[in-house]
Amino acid sequence: MQSALPLRRNVTHEVVMRGIDVLVCRPMRTGWDETTPGVYELPSGRRIRGRGLRGPLPSGLTPTLGVYLLGRRPPRFEWDSRWVRWPDFWLPSDRSAAVATLREALERSADERVEIACGGGNGRTGTAMAMLAVIDGVPPAEAVDYVRAHYSPRAVETPWQRRFVERFRA
Q1: Which of 10, 46, 84, 111 has its CA 20 to 30 A from that of 28?
Q2: pTM assigned to the model
Q3: What are the structural domain ranges in the chain?
């Protein structure tokens, strides 16, 4: 039996339909396990992994969506990805595009493995995680403390990143 589309590497597939001449599979949608390093849980229970791209790719499952916050286009990945132009230590170049991308990431995190990453995994990633917390219902004035308590104590590195989160409205 030949398949019209190859099965995706590193993704568990489930059988959707089985017939005499047909076997239809689709990727199983599962989020991150709470024990996965770098996983951040939002108040809604959705989980997103944060990491720094300067470090090695963590072992285990790969993301189904990656959001990369970098000053220049990242390399290609084997999974679906989005690039948000966001220079190191600064804010996103196109704020409305960044918010739209984060909303997509939050929506997809309901049943997919979403990761957000920048160079070191703290400043830009922490700022994006705090923005996700606001979208998920955390008051903007509390979002930086929330992300520092639940993701990394070093999240949101600069005063202007902090102000950006405090003024952010979902």
Answers
A1: 84
A2: 0.82
A3: 39-167
